[in-house]
Every structure is written in C-alpha cells, then in structure tokens.
Amino acid sequence: MSIEQLTYIVEVAKSKSLAAAAKNLNISQSALSQAITKLESELNVKIFIRSRAGVITTREGDRLIEKAQNVLYSIFQLKKEANQINNFNDSLRISLIPGLISPIVDTYLSFKEKGSNLKIEVNEKASLKIVEDIKNDEIDTGFIAVNKGNFDLVTGLQFTPITEGKLLVYASERSGLTHSNKSILPDVLKEQQFVLYKDEYVLDFVSNFQRLFGPIDIFFQTTNLEIINKAVVEHGAVTIGHDISTKFQHPTLSSKRVKALDTGDLFDTSFKFGWIKKFDYKLSEEAKLYIEEVNSILM
C-alpha cells in the first residue's frame, strides 16, 4: 500500500469515473486501474464496482475511502508542520516600538556577515498593537513598553524585561527650552506647540497633563518619525517620546540641536521595556542569539 494508491481511490470515489480521475491525477487510465486492482488484492477487499455507467464504491469501499481521506489529511498536516519548522528555523517576524530600527537592523547585518541564515521582517508599531499582533499570531515576538498602570496588558503572555526608562519631552534650540538643565515647568510646557507620535503612552501623557494643567496646542499627530523630527528641528515644535527610542532613532533627535527635557514629578512616566511572545512559542536558537545581541545594545 502506498500514499499514491490512497490518493487514487479517494479521487476515483470523488470523480465516480476512472477516466476523469486519471485525467485529474495526470496518469493513464490503465495505470490507475492496475494500481486500484493491486490495492484491492493486497487488502482482499473490493473497493469499486466498475461498469459502463461509471464507478460505484462498495459498502466496504466507503469505509476504506473514509480512512484513506483521514490518512491523507494527516499527511497533509505533517507536511504543513514540517514546512513551519523549516520556516521557524530561518525566519523571525518582529514588531517594536518606534525608534529602535537601528539596533535591530545593525545587529541583523552583523549576523548576516557571520553567515547566518536568519531572515527577519520588522515593523514599528505602538505597544498595544504589538500585543494584539502577538495574540493573533501575526508576529513571533515584539519589543514593547509597559507601565505600572497597564501591566495586565501582558497577562497570559511571556514578557521579558530588558531595561527601564521614561517618557521625556524633546525640544530644539528654536523652542527656547534647551538652555536650562532643570525640569520643564507645566506653565512653560503649556505654551509650546506639540507634534505627537500616535502611541497610547504618549496620548496618556497628554491626557493626564491636560487634565491637571489645561489644554495644550497639538499641531498634528502622526506615525511618521521623519515628519516629527523635521517639525521639532526646523519649526520649534516639541514632542514626547520614550528615552530608549531616542537613543537610536533619527540623528536629529540625538544631535546637539535637540535636548531631552524631564517633566519632573508631575506624574509617573516610568516604563519597563522588553520582549513579548506567547508562552508556547519557541524561538529558534539562531533567533535567540540574534535577540541576545540586540539586547546587549539596548541594555
């Protein structure tokens, strides 16, 4: 008995015709007939009754064909699993909070130079969206920010903290805010024009600030860091971002022209940053080594 023979009898039962089944299987009708006859002889069971009107399955044949379908489906699942294992060994889908593309890509290029077969797919997204993608199996792992207020965000998932940080205000020389080393005062911050990245934590910061000190002037919101950087440097706007992100993002926000400003003790803006994935998802050894290299830069 072979997989081909099981495939043949399932197709004949479906087509109800040796000629049609042979055409669908891309073999000769005589070869198909001989294979079925050989299987019937081996099993000592009559599977089909052949006539000029076509092919009819016997009662015993119906039972065998049902079993054959189950076997073929199991083989299909086995091949699918093997394919996933092969993909698992050399690919990694990652999403991360904005501003961390540089260490991700630089580490990957270094890995490739060493002969690694690892392939990565990288996207920048807000933390909540990354968690959603993990739960929907759209990515393998993600790098997110979690604060005390929403630690339940990672409930049921494996969260591995890597470092800590906070939200800061970023301003350029044009804003007139970069000449002092003190925390920026709420009254001064209220007078600024804001450009914001669409991130749940940034928006929470703004919401809390406006609740305590009144409305602020929000020029625009976007997920385009290039536009935010340009507005800060060239137009004197201010923005809000994670300190870890600004260490690695666009050169303008890490240059002497832009300064990070602490907001003091207005409210808690501290975060834990780390990797998140499903508990039962196993990363390949190559992927683990890659992430360890990235962590050495982020920490």
From TrEMBL:
Record flagged with keyword Transcription regulation: yes
GO molecular function: DNA binding; DNA-binding transcription factor activity
One of the record's GO cellular component terms: protein-DNA complex
Keyword tRNA processing: no
Alphabetized SUPFAM superfamilies for the sequence: Periplasmic binding protein-like II, Winged helix' DNA-binding domain
Gene3D superfamilies reported for this sequence: 3.40.190.290, Winged helix-like DNA-binding domain superfamily/Winged helix DNA-binding domain
Keywords: DNA-binding, Transcription, Transcription regulation
InterPro entries: LysR_HTH_N, LysR_subst-bd, WH-like_DNA-bd_sf, WH_DNA-bd_sf
Top-rank taxon, per record: Bacteria
Residue intervals of the HTH lysR-type domain: 1-58
Family the entry assigns: Belongs to the LysR transcriptional regulatory family.
Protein name: LysR family transcriptional regulator
UniProt organism field: Oceanobacillus bengalensis
Lineage of the organism: Bacteria, Bacillati, Bacillota, Bacilli, Bacillales
